[in-house]
Design a protein that fits this description.
This protein is an alpha/beta fold. It contains eleven helices and eleven strands. β2, α1 and β3 form a beta-alpha-beta unit.
Length: 302
């Protein structure tokens, strides 16, 4: 990936932090600047790395001039979720917290996350509690994660899970890089489950820790095509990591819906077929213990 690194000197009074905040953005300058304002106000004063995925709205210059003192990595094109991988590679702290350009962290949350990660060396990813909008509404995923059927582990905090929200996660940098980060076959949309699988397959823990809080303020407008992307990537995740009977069983309903004329199903199926050869080349079965956990979660979701 060709990249241009635009550096900015560290802010003189920045405190030492164990956590870098990493985010990706593309042509969402006003929302991004609002997020940077929030990050600059955090008591932890974290280092911030922003990956610009080929914006044409002056994002790079705006971030470079923002008082948060972020480093900007200009990818030159839309790299999707892979931009997060680039940000993690450039981070120098042991932990990395992800923000989207419409999300940030509650005051003290980053220090709290670092304390949890310090205390639990096997924890590879911490899935935070997410509050949405100005009314701080509970994200529906919070209850899903809290009710995970996976048994507790003595050496892990919170509740073991195999899913999370990308903009509400803190990772151990070493674990993230060891697992390969976000996968290129998925690009963007529902990419979290595959990373959770890959961390767990390498022995790293993934836990929901609701005492750490992320704040998400998404735009209220609809995002056309997002549902089809999530359907596509859920199916590609199965073909990448799950047993063939499972992948086939999950493919059948999508094929049936596409045959009935469902537009989202058709779009998801077309996208799956286009990326399926690459998924098969990168196919790597989950260890039995992780496959067992995935099946427990499937049964609980029915």
């Amino acid at each position: 990936m060709a990249e241009v690194v635009v550096s900015r000197p560290a802010v003189a009074d920045r405190r030492s932090s164990r956590v870098t905040v990493a985010m990706i953005t593309r042509n969402r300058r006003p929302s991004l600047l609002r997020t940077l304002d929030r990050l600059a106000a955090l008591p932890e004063r974290p280092e911030v790395v922003v990956v610009d995925n080929g914006s044409s709205d002056g994002t790079v210059d705006a971030v470079r001039d923002h008082p948060v003192g972020a480093r900007v990595l200009a990818a030159g094109r839309n790299t999707g979720a892979l931009g997060r991988n680039l940000a993690v590679r450039h981070a120098t702290t042991p932990y990395v917290a992800f923000s989207d350009d419409d999300s940030w962290w509650a005051p003290g949350a980053l220090d709290a996350a670092a304390d949890v990660l310090d205390a639990h060396p096997r924890l590879g990813l911490l899935a935070a509690r997410t509050l949405v909008g100005p009314d701080a509404t509970e994200d529906p995923l919070n209850s899903v994660l809290a009710d995970s059927p996976l048994p507790p582990a003595e050496d892990l905090p919170g509740r073991p899970v195999l899913g999370f929200l990308a903009c509400a996660a803190v990772v151990r940098r070493r674990a993230f890089l060891e697992a390969g980060g976000y996968h290129p076959v998925l690009f963007f949309g529902g990419e979290e489950t595959l990373l959770a699988y890959d961390l767990a397959a390498r022995g790293w823990g993934v836990s929901h820790v609701p005492s750490v809080t992320a704040l998400h303020h998404p735009d209220p407008g609809e995002r056309p095509g997002r549902s089809a992307l999530h359907l596509r990537n859920a199916l590609l995740t199965d073909w990448l990591r799950r047993p063939l009977p499972v992948a086939l069983r999950h493919t059948a309903p999508l094929c049936a819906a596409a045959a009935r004329g469902d537009r989202e199903a058709r779009a998801a199926l077309r996208g799956t077929l286009a990326r399926l050869p690459a998924a098969l080349r990168h196919r790597e079965r989950l260890p039995d213990r992780v496959e067992h956990a995935a099946r427990l979660l499937e049964r609980a979701a029915r």
